Amino acid sequence: MPAAPQLAPIKEPRESVLPTLLGEGYGTYPVRPTAFFISFVINLAAAALLIWSGHWVVQHHEQIQRQVVALVTDVSPYVLKPSKTQAGGGGGGGDRDKLQASKGSPPKFAREQITPPMVVVRNPNPQLAVPPTVVGPPDLKLAQLGVVGDPLSNVLGPPSNGTGSGGGIGSGSGGGVGSGRGPGVGPGEGGGIGGGLYRVGGGVSAPRAVYSPDPEYSEEARKAKYQGIVMLWLIVGADGRPREIRVMRSVGMGLDEKALEAVRTWRFDPARKDGHPVSVQINVEVSFRLY
After folding, report:
1. In which element (H, E) is residue 46 found?
2. What are the C-alpha distances in Å from 149 to residues 76, 99, 101, 228, 270?
């Protein structure tokens, strides 16, 4: 008998090794096409937003840089330029903290100070609660930053009263705010705000010498019959005493030293602003004449 014909084995359809675009054939459980499309659209939108934001930053780089620099360095609302008609001033403080004073706004200005400003309150339950102030014109309004601190500081945190002393905020002393001395704000001293000492004018009276003995002549200048005028720069404090005396115009022959010696002994009726004694910077001419 002829051999029976052998039939070719029927091949089973092969399963797809790779998943399809819609996720079919991936894993054990079926994948919903809608979930794939939603994920694809979200990722596409995120990528587009990232590309657009990068392009925008490149196009507005200079504008962003100006805004950032202005935030850190624009202290013009807090500094009054000294002039003959506009008084300077300043103050500082701190409580010997290890950290620099944090950035913020000073409290309200007042004619007198009872309570100095503080970022970190050491006594939360005082016997007599009085709002903190700094000494200066009460009608002077400064931009508020939302928190109390030193407006000229670049430290945004953590909160600190600063490395200074005498209460207040900053690296200076005297119960004020900033790097100066006194109950005012900013570099300088004597109250108010300004970035410098008070100057005569702008509501600040001139100090008046009440004790001013004449300087002695140096032997060298006397023998040479030398005459001249020494110009000195000095600060007259609120107590009427001169300090930080410097020679601005020298004549030599030992007369500069004699002028310094004499002026250190002088006493003044101090300058006044709104009836209160303040420190001012002045120039003094000391004349040497042979009669």
Report:
1. helix 33-59
2. 17, 13, 7, 50, 31
**Segment (H or E) for 135:** strand 134-135
Summarize pLDDT for 151-199 with one digit per residue, the tens. 888 788 789 999 999 899 998 888 889 888 888 888 777 777 765 667 7
Which residue type does 222 have?
A: R
The answer to whether 80 and 88 have CB atoms below 8 angstroms apart is: yes
Burial of 201 (0-12, 13-18, 19+ CB in 10 A): middle
User: Whole-angstrom Cα distance, residue 74 to residue 67?
Assistant: 10
Residue 137: exposure state from Cβ atoms within 10 A (0-12, 13-18, ≥19): middle
Reference 228, options 262, 260, 245, 252; nearest CA is 252
**Token output for 74:** 């624009």
Does this model's pTM top 0.70?
Answer: no
57 vs 154: CA distance, rounded Å: 24
